[in-house]
Amino acid sequence: MSRRGGLQVKLDSFSYNVVMKTLELLETRYNYKISENTKKEIAEAVLKQMDSLIEK
């Protein structure tokens, strides 16, 4: 298992919070119904793609 630096942990936390806030807004403003399982899957997918998103 590789060790992750503090900056990576902060980026992951920030990204997770952005994903969750986005999903919350979709639910409250646009009446989307998003299951907890789907939220978790979306957050995991974004976190897995963080490196490629930052490089763009």
Note down, in words, how this protein is organized.
The protein has helices at residues 6-30, 36-48, 50-55. With 56 residues, it is mostly helical. The chain is elongated and about 35 Å long. The mean pLDDT is 88.
Assess the beta-strand content as a share of residues.
under 5%
Q: How far is the first residue's CA from the last residue's CA?
A: 27 Å
Structural class: mainly alpha
- How does the major sheet shape up? none
Rough outline: elongated
Series of H and E elements: HHH
What percent of the residues sit in helical stretches (DSSP H or I)?
A: over 70%
Spans of at least 5 consecutive residues whose pLDDT stays below 50 are none
Supply Rg.
13 Å
Mean pLDDT equals 88
Secondary structure tally, helices: 3
Q: Compute the number of strand runs.
A: 0
Distinctive features:
single chain, 56 residues, mainly alpha, 0% strand
Write the layout of secondary structure elements.
Layout lengths: L5 H25 L5 H13 L1 H6 L1
Helix pairs in contact: 1-2
Concise summary:
The protein has 56 residues and is mostly helical. The protein is built from three helices and no strands.
